Amino acid sequence: MHTICKKGMISLSLALLMLFGAVAGAFRPMSTTAAEDYRMWTQLDGRWINVDMNGTTIGRSGCLITSLSIMAMASGSLDSKALSNLGISNANQFNPGVLATAYRKRGAFTYGGGIASWGTINQIIPSITFVKDAYLKSYTRSSIASEIKSMMDQGMYVIVNVNGHHWVLIEGVIGDKVYMNDPATHSTLMFDQYAISGGNEYWALKGKNPPAAFKDPNTTTTTKKVTTTKKTTTTTTTTTTTTTTTTTTTTTDTTTTTTTIVTEPVVTLEAPEEYYYTSDKTADVYTMPSELSESVAQMKNGYVFEISAVSGDYGLIQGESESLGWVQLKDAKKTSAEKKYIAGDINNDMKVDIYDLGLLSEYLKNLKVLPDGIATLSNCETEAADINCDGKVNEGDVLVYLMLICI
Ligand SMILES: [Ca+2]
Ligand SMILES: [Ca+2]
Asked: Is the whole model's pTM more than 0.85, yes or no?
């Protein structure tokens, strides 16, 4: 960013080295990893939030696609035929963005992201069969829980419409508690999160494997990280030859930590807005607009980025090919697009000199290590850096600077 103009001097001595040497990056890849818990996928994940669904995006309308994706993983339905249909080579590459893209390529979304045909999932993932689209017959929590559990006991996965426009995948039922994988939040208890009055629409599907036996995770729903302690009792009984019975009881502590992430609505901007980060304190870039989600990159002073959507205090960093993640905007400022720059004068001080070359060198060095979506020059500054006016900013511009300055 132009406010760091004097830093160019520091970088000059390394200028030529920077042109040809890559520095190891500290950023983690954005693809799905083998260890990732697919049950925590949400439609707001920066890796697929902007994936096209025919006039809308997963972030805005992808709750059903995300629920189907979790169901596909939970049921172990991604066989070789499914992987081929999805255009991926293994299940670790699968995510809601991959499934939405498969739907879109088949023309299986109506305009606005509606699923045109229930049977499409079977065409893409043959092990998944659509059983029915119906409405719950129950109207009390207890009977709703029983009705859903009955279907799951028959090997069906159930995706429930909880409020007329939002769908969640049911993970299990314990008594009157219905546990869900919610594509919008990381809340787990359906009745705590949504006002279910009964008669809700639902989808029932079968996969390669039926729903796994579900155990009460002993979770609580709050908006902060919480720790609960559960006492469990183990009883051991030993019978002697004289028919005397001795009972030994031991007590242990088990600690369970659960996290619930509550996010603000996502508002997509009409056009990207450019910001630069102003704080000396490093900030995290998260997969969701919440500090409780996973960090995928680090934001530092002077970094420039474009925002394509906002959610509360957070902005979604947009890269060229995909969005990077969410960062808090409280320590960021919008760049000024009104300033006039002349070719070569990156810091806009009306001179083309060694400081500009330093900024260019730093920009080129960071291109190789920063993730897509973060740079050290704004769009205006990048245009100014193209001193040979060939539409690209690269080593050719450095050579022109050197010829102009070092004579
Ligand atoms: Ca200058
Ligand atoms: Ca150029």
From this structure: no
